[in-house]
Amino acid sequence: ANAQTAPNTFPEKLTYSAEHIEKGIEAYRREQYDSSIYWYDQVYVRDTNFASASYEKALSLIKLKRYDQAIVALDKSDEAEDGNDARNGMVRARAYHKKGDKDKAYSLIH
């Protein structure tokens, strides 16, 4: 079997997703945004923590000025069962604002 797993495919070895998220948050705090994204991508799409991982990933993507990817991550968080639409909406508005689409950002918060 292939030792490497593509992001969001069923993992060969189940892991504790909260540990991945915590490692991602620690990397984010050290301003190691690419590393934090790596850890968030380790969370399986059907995991109960997937929405949180996608939200955290979006924050890192915004720091890297990858706004469109951040918006996609927030969309994935919304689609997950435990997604927080209000929290995601505020971060989505920030992503649109930072990429220069102030009208879209404004429409999301008003």
Secondary structure blueprint with pairings:
Elements: H1 17-29, H2 33-40, H3 50-63, H4 67-79, H5 85-98, H6 102-109
Helix pairs in contact: 1-2, 1-3, 2-3, 3-4, 3-5, 4-5, 5-6
Describe this protein's structure.
With 110 residues, this protein is mostly helical. It is built from 6 helices and no strands. It has helices spanning 17-29, 33-40, 50-63, 67-79, 85-98, 102-109. Helix 1 packs parallel to helix 3.
Count up the helices.
Answer: 6
Name the structural class.
Answer: mainly alpha
Summarize model confidence as the mean pLDDT: 87
Rg computed from alpha carbons, rounded to a whole number of angstroms: 14 Å
* SSE string, helices as H and strands as E: HHHHHH
Residue share in helix: 55-70%
Q: What would a concise description of this structure say?
A:
By secondary structure, the protein is mainly α. The protein has 6 helices and no strands.
Characteristic terms for this protein:
110 residues; mainly alpha; 6 helices; 0% strand; globular; disordered N terminus
